[in-house]
Amino acid sequence: MDVRAGGQPGSRRSKGPVGSAAPAGLEAALAAVARGDEAAFAVVYDRAAPAVLGTARRILRDPAQSEEVMQEVLLEVWRTASRFDPATGSAAAWITTLAHRRAVDRVRSEQRAARREIRAAAAAIAYDEVADAVEASLDRERVRRCLAGLTELQRESVTLAYYGGYSYREVALLLGVAVGTVKTRMRDGLIRLRDCLGVG
Q1: What span, in angstroms and rounded, lies between the C-alpha atoms of 16 and 172?
Q2: Do 99 and 135 fall within a single domain?
């Protein structure tokens, strides 16, 4: 089944998102999809896509990632339509739940990747040595002075990531800058901290 943004399979279209038509209509179409009916999938796609995309956007905020999740969810609907059980709820609720789970999984995956990148960056510039030096000397005033020597964006990025526990993506959202900018500023800031603290 070929599912692409802007290119829904089939030619049938119905008005409105999930839940805007009679529930039985969507559920009947989903039952037909479970039997491999591509025309029925076109109906399900047209009705479900706006709600799936909206759910993904609320969680991810990123338009491109939301589009990707929408396509993944609708493919999952095509492949697993036979798992839908009308006794447990509506077809709209089932599809929206799939969308929510997939979007949350994407967020968690992004967070894990960001944590790995932070650990790699910290290792590359001997951040652990910086942390060890700070803990060993207990020279808080010196640390404050070195932090004050950073640019505002460097200081905020380092503080949010290492003391607040935020991912690159979360820091970027909080500061309203690009993720690449956060990565660069954090790297430069940690190098300056290392030099200021006399580590390495």
Answers
A1: 35
A2: no
Q: What is the pLDDT of residues 19-58, one digit of tens each?
A: 333 334 889 999 999 999 999 999 999 999 999 999 999 9
Is residue 83 located within the same domain as residue 152?
no
Q: Coil, strand or helix: which one is 89?
A: coil
Residues 6+ apart with CB under 8 A from 52: 18, 69, 70, 73, 74, 95, 96, 98, 99
List the structure tokens of 16: 């409105």
Radius of gyration of the chain (CA): 24
> Distance (Å, rounded) from C-alpha 90 to C-alpha 120?
45
* Per-residue pLDDT tens digits for 140-189: 667 777 878 888 888 888 777 776 777 888 888 878 888 888 888 888 88
Q: Are residues 101 and 157 in the same domain?
A: no
Q: How many domains does the chain have?
A: 2
101 plus 74 within the same structural domain = yes
7: β partners: 4
CATH number of the domain that residue 151 is part of: 1.10.10.10
Verify that 82 and 46 share a domain, yes or no: yes
**Alpha carbon distance, N-terminus to C-terminus of the chain:** 56
Structural domain range at position 140: 125-197
- Token duo for residue 69: 């999740």
Contact in structure between 66 and 56 (CB atoms under 8 Å): yes
The residues near 2 (Cβ < 8 Å, ≥ 6 apart) are 9
